[in-house]
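Hey all, sorry for the wall of text incoming. These are the two entities for the joint prediction.
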Amino acid sequence: MLAQLLANGILMGSVFALIASGLAFIYGPLNLVNFAHGDLVMTSMYVAFLCADRLHVRIWLALPITFVIMGIIGLLDYRFLVRPVLHAPRLAQALTTHGFGVGLQALALFFMGPDFRTISNVTFSGTLSVASLNVGVARFMAGVAGVVAFALLYVFLQYSKTGKAVQAIAMNREAAALIGIDLERMYALSLVISMLCVGVAGVFLSQFYYIFPVVGPPLLSMAWVAMVIGGFGSMPGAFIGGIIVGLTQAISGYVMNPALKDAIMYIIFVGLMAFKPRGLFGW
Amino acid sequence: MLRSRGGYWLLLLVALVLPLVLTPSFFRHIMTMTLMYACMAQAWNIVGGYAGQIALGNVVFFGLGAYSAALGFVKFGLSPWLGLLIGIVVSATVAAVIGWASFKTSGIYFAIATLGIGELARTLFVSWRWAEGSVGIEMPILPSSLLNFQFHGARLPYYYMILGLLVLYFWIVTRIGNSRFGYYLRTISVSEIAAEAVGIDVLHYKMVAFVLAAVMTSVCGTFYNQYLLYIDPWSVFPSTISMMMLFITVFGGVGTAIGPVIGAAILIPLGELTRGALGGQGKGIDYLINSVLMVAITILEPRGVLQLLRWLSGRKERKHDQSA
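and here's what came out:
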């Protein structure tokens, strides 16, 4: 039983981790709190839903389509909503990004209605059985996707010139500008990469998660908690934080009233804040 | 500030007379809600506008105030007025704990911690069997009286009570703005390091502002319980109410006394009327309008509608270093 819980927790945690990494990609380089992040995941879930439902494509085609759409949304978001408030007080950033999130929810509500949706012709179905563990194929693939996406991100950050530039900006914006890094382009790139994370997470989530207009905010909260656990500014930290969140949810859901799963997360969160705000790997 | 003190008295006169002129209960309901939101926004203004701390979960104090009154009456037979006091004590304690835990770190932690607390409260109350969970609490109907804190029929006393509360809150915020406490808060909001350097006890003043806001919000929660006579976790703990407090204040003019009033006076009726006109089709038009306004006011005029009003009335504004 414990092994089953751990498996579920890690797989779901991998998805949270991916979402949290997307959030970290914006908080690190841009120093921006993106309150629309959860709603962007919701948007990519709907895009994936429409790909499956209207275009009847499999996930392998839905993924690039979602990437393109989310990338465009990211660029527009950056140009019109994020750039004006990059150097504004936190309050302005919070309100703008939150406004964008609410707008996305409103559009989802308007075009898709409030009903919970699921994809009927999923690419992944059935259950995997390994040893005594049973795992839904969709969840398994989501977990794998999370790890693969994160690995690619990590390689990008550590070993490519652009990736190192992004890290440089996250560490010290002025110094990065001084040595000739084009901040504008890096900001836009960071946002687009964040959107790609969101896209992957959304597409794979749509295979097994309910899709509805307000699925975003709880995901955002989980992503925040994951980031804080891992430590602000650290990409691997965000990932580990996500795994921890997933594990905690799985275990607490079993040990106590499942409705209190989220409550445990928040309690841990507030406790961390009081005693170890730097998290595991944060600066 | 408005052009003269007289402007404020005129507003008060209008507010006193309005429900006698607009008699349909739908309008009176909108007006009462507008005043209540203005009170909560005013409370938020103290910690978010003057002290510059982004509190995203103030709805938790609203809900605690509501539930204290409801549970106190339904489970223990306590008068709602006693429930009011209990709500104040509980909210102040929660605020103190959260503040202590997160004010020593940078502002972003506080923002997320308060966001988490709001969500935590809702989750807890949904699954708390003794507090009736999702089913909510229905207050027994008692004869109209101030002692019972219930009024039926025209329900006008509710309106005047909340108006009185708003006048009190407005006075509090104005006094804070002109006091040493207010200067300390504004210094903290501009630069905590500078504030510490000149000897201001930053942690202490942030705590005071936050606890004060919590108490003020809690009173509104108790009022809401007595006004609607039914509460449940989804109606008194949603994060949308927290963001509304923020939005109303910034929209009207953050860090000013009249800002939250202006913001509420525009946004609440707008929301209610839009929802009413475009019907229960559930199409989220009012959310869309809110979202557009949020983005527009932040990007175009972060100092809020108050600034637009000043511009319209031709006053040249002294350049403050920042106001948002």
